[in-house]
Amino acid sequence: MKFFLKFFYLTTFYYFSFIFIIILTISNVISVEQDSFPLINISPGLYALQLSIGYPQHDFLLLVDTSSKFTWVRGTNCTFCAYTDNIYDEEASISVIHQDEIPYTTMVDIKGSVSGNILYDDIKIGDFYATKVEMLVASEDEYQECADGVLSLKYPKDPNDVRNILNKLFKSGFIKNKILYFNFEDEMAGNLRIGNVPDYINDNNKNYSTCYIHDNNNNWNCLLTHLLLDDNYNFYQANVIDATAIFSTGLEKIYVPRNTLDLFINNYFKTFPDYDEKSCMTKTISGIHQIYCLRNFLNFKGPSIHFIMNGYAYRIPFDELFEDVYTDSYNSYKLFRIEFYETEKNEWYFGTIFLKQYEVVFDAENKEIGFYGDNKHDLTKYTNEEYEVYCWYNTISVILLFLVIIIPMIYDVTHKMK
Predict the structure, then answer these.
(1) Which DSSP string do the residues of 270-319 spell out, in sequence order?
(2) pLDDT tens-digit profile of 236-268?
(3) What is the full DSSP assignment across 119-149?
(4) Which CA distances in Å does 105 have to 29, 119, 153, 162?
(5) Does the pTM exceed 0.85?
(6) DSSP reduced 3-state for 49
(7) Do 248 and 66 meet the contact criterion of CB atoms below 8 Å apart?
């Protein structure tokens, strides 16, 4: 009898222990999935997130954009819009909040302009719930992407700004850290985490580099100090830029000020073998200056382009800098994926052509942006303060050597000649 009781107790103990472990494992899996969201590729280099707005909840596919000023969707009166297949009906949502005087607002960026009224409604992303999010309901837009609008994941400059989604999720307890993690796995899919990063990034600092938030505005940005237009990693041949680098998941290409066009032509394209004026041409479309090169002309392994931030040279390979886009009766052309826009500001916009080279962490807690991956080169020995002091020390040493040795020798020679 005692044997059966002992057997019963042990069996019951192990059974419930097994059930407890299963429940714990499932809960851990669920908790991981709650802050990780799949991104859907809607066009080359652009990714969207499935979410719902309002109550009753209405599903939308919004382009994720870390540089957009507003979250916006197309409204019922969007008569001048590119796509109207899925629109937001503010009259159907009982959670919408209108302002006493609804301002009509126009937002302009590199992709175009969006105009409409400002209101507030709830947004649900997976199990995350943000109430009273400021949105622009568009009545006209110039965006050509086949998404229902844009989800703004801009930098939370002001921690008390209740309009910022990261601030809302943080204050509501859905996330413990104001962090975004992006991994654009390939042209078809990506992944977004809100509130944390994968453990292997925290555990492997060797492949992780950062740059600090440069301009304290609502953009995720760093200081772009230099530009290297070859693969030699000779820091002394780098071009000094000192620009604000704005990182935008809502862009596919890199956009730089128009006044840098000559720099790229003279210091990059003219270094290509057999370059002449017919090899590449410049076109202007909607105020954006683009460079098209003959496909046959680019039939060689050319140099990468490196962007130096906080001492690290971040690389884009040559074969990813061009794409097949244009063919006429006689020739095939490739488009240079760095384009030039008219601006008086020294701001460079880095889209997913750059971001997909790494796993990227937008970290508002530490006011920095992190890049995990191997596609970069450490040049911090040339940019840190210790090296600058070392360089000054060497310069002073050479001057002293000249004064102590060379001048007496010259004096001695001239004295003997007399």
Answers:
(1) GGSTT--TTTEEEEEETTEEEEEEETTTT-S----EEEEETTEEEEE-GG
(2) 999 999 999 999 999 999 999 999 999 999 999
(3) EEEEEEETTEEEEEEEEEEEEEE---SSSSE
(4) 42, 11, 19, 19
(5) no
(6) strand
(7) yes
